[in-house]
Structures are given as C-alpha cells and as structure tokens.
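Z., the sequence and structure:
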Amino acid sequence: MIEVSNLTKKYGDHTALDSVSFKVEKGHIYGLLGPNGAGKSTTMNILTGYIAPSEGSVIINGFDMGLKPHKAKACIGYLPEIPPLYPDMNVYEYLYFASSIKKVPASKRKDEVARVMALTNIDTVQKRLIKNLSKGFKQRVGIAQALLGEPEIIILDEPTVGLDPEQIIEIRSLISNLKEKHTVILSSHILSEISAVCDEVLMIAKGKVVALDTTDNILKMSKKSQKLELLLKGTQEQVEEVFAKLSLIESYTFIEEADGRCKFEIIAVESKEDIREELSFALFDAKILILEMRSTLASLEDIYLEILQSCVDEKDEISENDDEISVEEMSSDSSDFESENDNPVDEKEEA
C-alpha cells in the first residue's frame, strides 16, 4: 500500500527526517506519534506529495511519488490540521467544487457528493455556509473532501484538535468506520485517541522511526508492562521472603505495614504478561492472605515517554515546530517532484 524507503529531509543544516523506512499495509488504521519537532508533519507532507524528500522514495500503490506524482496522489485523501475549506461556500457547493478538482467525472459528481455527505453525516447542513458551522461539522466537511473519489489511503492530521468531548467521540467513531474501505494514517498528540482508534502505532523521534507495531504489541514493550499493587495479611519480612524466590518479579517496592498488614508495589518481568495466578499460588503456599490486588498494564503514555526518554537526550532542546520552512523552500521542494516523467496525463492514455 505505502512503502517508504530511506526517507531523508533536510532544511539547511537541520535534518527533519533521517533515513526513515516503513511499510503501511492495507485495511489498518495507523497512529503517527512523536513530540514536536520529531518529523511527523514533514513525513505527512512528503507522503502526500506536498514537498519532496532530500533522499529516499515513497511508493503509493506501486506508483513512485517522485516519478508519477499524479497517479500516486490520486490514491490519497488528505485532511490537514487546518481543513482547506472555503467559508463563503455552502457545504454542497464546496464538496462539488472539490470533486471537480479531484477529477471525479461530471456525470458522477452529484452522487459522489451525496455519498461522502452520508458517510460523514453532514446531509442536514449541506445548504449552510461553511463559516456558520461548528468546528465539529467543519472537521466532518474536511473529512468528506478527503473521501471524495474513494482514495484507498486517508491521511488525517490532528482531526480532533479543538473539538468538545462529544464531537471527539463522533469523529473517532467516524474514523474507526473508515478502515472498512480505506487505510488510514492518523497523526495525533492525544495518546488516548491513538489507543482507542488505531490498530498499529508508528513512533518517530528526532527524525527516526523508533517503533512500528500493533497497539497491543507496543503496550507490551514497556519494562513495566505489568504493575501490581498488593495489600497482604502478613509481615514485610514474610512477604519479601516469598518475593525473593519468584523469578517472575522484576522488582518490588515496600510501601507500608500496619496492623498485621503490608502493602507492596510489584513490577513484573518483561517476558511475563500476567503474573497474578503464579503469584497468588506462591503467597497461598506461604499462608499469606491476599486482601487486595490491583493490576495496571502500562498505558500508551507510559510506553511513549519511556521510548522517547531512551531516544532523546534530555539536554537537547526540541523546537516547537521543526516544519516551519520558508515559502521559497516550499516552492523549491514542490518543484522537485515535477520530473520529466510527470507530464500532464494524456486523455488518450487515460482512455
């Protein structure tokens, strides 16, 4: 579906992407994560053909973005963080206009506009001016334009920023349903959103891919993959004697002891996904009663911070926005894609 090979992007002396390679498979929702300055926006701008890489290649459905940009771009629907809307048009007019730009055949435009409005539940506001819509409906209109022409790949940049909780739930539900017919790449700073919506997670730090796996496997990457809080009937000495014999415990912390009870926090070894059964039997054999046991799996936030801490020197100052480039640089980058092989498509060839 998408194959990125050795992608590098430099802005002067600054390297925004450094030999990034990854593959995106069909029918999944990928979450793109990284701190400000990590290279997320640069990655999306290159994937959509907005700017050219300094080195490397992007293949979209078999089309090289550098050699066949028109064909590659036709496979992509894109929603930037700020939707490209025309506020003085009504919803229907805007989508009809966008469908013509995307070269939807004139005979099919009305049906195509009706289809995307139904998918995004904006039929009821189709005659309203876009400038009078709520932010939630504007986001839906932006997603609708990305869906025009039924592109196989949908790329969404921070689609829920600025929305209220109800609108966020609605947009997440909409995105979840897209994978039935599309592959989705979702960039977001809201880690709970990535956990709730995405099948796989792609983490970028300092211009490099530091993790790419299913959400479930990412959650198992932490050295603190499982943490238990225990309230036990017994003394600290009795309990620690049991813990010392168990290889399934990475570490433990004594919290307090009072009235014949003691409280501990346990970190399971990395290879163990659930230690509760073995731990319970060991304590039972030692005649130590478990009064309370709470299990907490590492969250995506925990993994995210743990990975970044191992990849990024704390002394390095991360820019608030690594993707600010001049208009001249952007124009130069865009022109790089206009190769000799990228002549306007001949109508006879299309036929």
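The radius of gyration is 25 Å. Residues 172 and 196 are 8 Å apart (CA to CA).

Let me know what you think.
H.
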